[in-house]
Amino acid sequence: MLKTSYIISNRDEVIKSLKKRNFNAEELITNLISLDERRKLIQTEYENLLAESNSISKEIGQLFKDGKKDEVPNLKQRSSEIKNLTKVLSDDLSEVKKDIDDILTLIPNIPHVSVPNGNSSEDNLVLFNSKTKANKNCTIPHWELSKKYDLIDFEIGTKITGSGFPVYKGMGAKLQRALISFFLDSNIDFGYNEVQVPYLVNEHSAFGTGQLPDKEGQMYSIPQDNLYLIPTAEVPITNIFRDQIIEESNLPILKTAYSPCFRREAGSYGAHVRGLNRLHQFDKVEIVRIDHPEKSYQSLEIMKDQIKSIIENLELPFRIISLCGGDLGFTSALTYDFEIYSPAQDKWLEVSSVSNFETFQSNRLKIRYRTDKGKTDLVHTLNGSSLALPRVLATILENFQSEEGIMIPKVLQQYTGFSIIK
């Protein structure tokens, strides 16, 4: 969430920057400025009345000391009037602050200056293509390979729960576990500290990282307890630091976690959701950084290189793209997507997003750092999928298929205990 003071001080710049997202913020910001002016007037009147009330209390005390009790009733009457007035003003102040917050939740993050112009994914900028090229002879799609080698059962998952909840079996389950272990071990080698986090979060947590209200329709909820199943481990990891002041010397903080992820994917249908392409429950390993504002973009490049090296070790054909303004997530200032090529489907499949949110999340979560001079300011938060498993597993099956079976990438064989699926 952007700061009110920043938006007002940089009104024209904010409106211009948000146009890169195809978002017209002019009316919202005009209303925000009007509400903030009203807030200031109410705040001033409220504080003046409190000051008068304090002055009256002191004056009454002095009158009693001076033996002038006859003058006290009039002051008490005024004190009672002030009490009623401050109650009304307090309610008005709460209402106008809520109206301000309601507007702020509708305004997305400001795109970084490097974000490409564009309206949709068609306008995203390709930054890198791997040297590993796809084998065009790999024509059998992963859902057929899964059935042939008895690795994943989509029908049983549908029977148990519904579509989008697959059951991994035998070598398929072990390959899944191998990927999780490989991703976690890689992140730990990069300096991330592993944590295990809850798979349910409260409304405050989901709001803090930007899932609410922006993605409410995509989240599974438990109304009875007002809890949400996590769409990514980013939510609980980042909320570890909610309402904290971190010493500057302790930055950056690096965390990684494995978790199942739950997304309703409302409105998804058609061929693009077949097999592992789009699931309601899937596994993912996440990385999160809490960083100094002056170093966060350097850190984003480091994260990008770390994920790049993981995919390179898997020997898969991939590319890195920079999301254009029209495709950028609500909370992100800059996002890099990683896509692996699916030869059987002849399409690129997203397996990771790496984003810098700058202070957008930390402002909601009140995560600050303190300098050695005692000054506090908001940190920058960053996160990335490292990596989302379904499409990685799908592209391994497709890219490593052969007449003998499905070969296992060398880097995974120490985790699987086998080199080929027959």
TL;DR?
The chain is of the alpha+beta class.
Please specify the SSE layout and strand pairing.
Elements: H1 4-9, H2 11-18, H3 26-66, H4 72-104, E1 125-129, H5 142-148, E2 152-153, H6 154-160, E3 167-168, H7 170-189, E4 193-194, E5 200-202, H8 203-208, E6 221-222, E7 227-229, H9 234-239, E8 245-247, E9 253-262, E10 281-291, H10 296-313, E11 318-322, E12 334-342, E13 347-358, H11 360-365, E14 368-370, E15 376-378, E16 380-388, H12 389-399, E17 406-407, H13 410-416, E18 420-421
Helix pairs in contact: 3-4, 5-12, 7-13
Give an overview of the whole structure.
This protein has helices at 4-9, 11-18, 26-66, 72-104, 142-148, 154-160, 170-189, 203-208, 234-239, 296-313, 360-365, 389-399, 410-416; strands at 125-129, 152-153, 167-168, 193-194, 200-202, 221-222, 227-229, 245-247, 253-262, 281-291, 318-322, 334-342, 347-358, 368-370, 376-378, 380-388, 406-407, 420-421. It has 422 residues and is of the alpha+beta class. The chain folds into two domains: 4-104, Helix Hairpins, CATH 1.10.287; 121-421, 2-Layer Sandwich (BirA Bifunctional Protein, domain 2). The chain has an eight-stranded mixed β-sheet with strand order 1-11-12-13-16-10-9-4. Strands 5-7-6 form a three-stranded antiparallel β-sheet. Strands 8-14-15 form a three-stranded mixed β-sheet, with no helix packed on it. The protein starts with a helix and ends with a strand.
